[in-house]
Amino acid sequence: MSEPFGFLPVDKPLGMTSHDVVAAVRRTARLKRVGHGGTLDPLATGVLVLCVGAATRLSEYVMATRKRYRATVRLGAVTATDDGEGAILAEQPVAHLTAEQVAAALVAFNGEIEQIPPMYSAVKQGGVKLYERARRGEVVERAARRVWLQTELLAYRPPYAEIAVECSHGTYIRSLARDLGAALGVGGYLAALRRLASGAFDQPVAWEALQAALADGTWQQYVVDERVALPHLPEIALDAAQSDAVRHGRAIASGGAAAEGALARLYADSGAFLAIASHSDGQWRPIKVFLH
β-strands 88-91, 205-206: how paired? Predict the structure, then answer.
C-alpha cells in the first residue's frame, strides 16, 4: 500500500504542542513521515497544517504563507516569556487607558515593521536556539526581523485587548503583545491566541473528530492535495518530453513570462503532480521532484 500524500488541517487543542499533534497522528495512523507547516505554542489553538508522507517536503511553502489570528493581549503586566506561561516580572495600572488609545497605538503595527523575536523562541543565534539560552537564565541581544502585519482592535475590556491580526511568516504575536504594551507605557503579554487561517486553510478538522477518524481508519477523508494547499503557486501542465526532462532533474523552457525566482507546480502528461520548480533565465528548473 502506497504512503498517503497530502495535507491535514487540524484544530490544535489548548495545551498540546505542535509536536504532540504530529506524534499522535504519526503513531495512531502508523505513518513514517508527518510534519507541520508552522508551529503553534501550547497556549495557542487553531489551524495547524500537518504534512503527510512526501508532502513533508512541501512544508516550507505552507509555512511561507500568511496567517490570520485572533489574539488577546493582557495589558499592564510583563512576563518572562511574553505570554501567560511565564512569571510576571512587573505590573502597572491600566485604568487610564481607553479603547481609542489602544487602537491608536496599534496603528504603528501595520505594514512592514522591524520585530525582535522573544527570548523564548526557536530562533537560532550562534547555532543555539534562543529558548535554550533563556532557560539557562541568559538574555541576549536579538536581531530585529522585517515582518508584515495588519492589525485591528476588536474589543477592549481592561486589561484585555482583543485584536485581529493578519501577518507574514516569521511574525511573533507574543512580540506584538509585548511591543503594544511597551508603546502604551504599561507593558503587555499574550494571554490567548487562536490561529484562524494558515494560507488557504481556514476550516480545520476538530481534534476530537480526527481522533475518532484515526481510530476507525477513515482519517484520510480529511487529507487534501497540493492544489488546495498551494493555490498561490501557478500550475503548469507538461507534455511527455518535458515530463521526462523534469523527472531527470533537467530544466525546461518556460514558454511564457514569469518573474525571476517565481515558483510553480509542474504536472506530468499523466496529470500527476511532478515537481516544484523555480523560474530562472527563461527556464523552469525543478527543485523538488516527486516520482510516481
Answer: unpaired
Q: Is 103 helix (H, G, I), strand (E, B) or coil?
A: helix
Which range marks the domain in which residue 165 is found?
67-198
CA distance 180 to 73: 9
What sign results for the dihedral spanned by CA atoms 30, 31, 37, 41?
positive
Is 183 part of a structural domain of the chain?
A: yes
What's the CATH code of the domain at 146?
3.30.2350.10
Three cell numbers, residue 165: 491580526
Q: Mind telling me the catalytic residues?
A: 41
The pLDDT tens digits along the chain (292 residues) read 578 999 999 999 999 999 999 999 999 999 999 999 988 989 999 999 999 999 999 999 999 999 999 999 999 999 988 999 888 999 999 999 999 999 999 999 999 999 988 766 565 666 656 556 556 555 656 778 899 999 999 999 999 999 999 999 989 999 999 999 999 999 999 999 999 999 999 999 999 999 999 999 999 999 999 999 999 999 999 999 999 999 999 999 987 778 899 999 999 999 999 999 999 999 999 999 998 6
Closest Cα partner for 156 from 81, 237, 108, 101? 101
In a domain, 1, yes or no: no
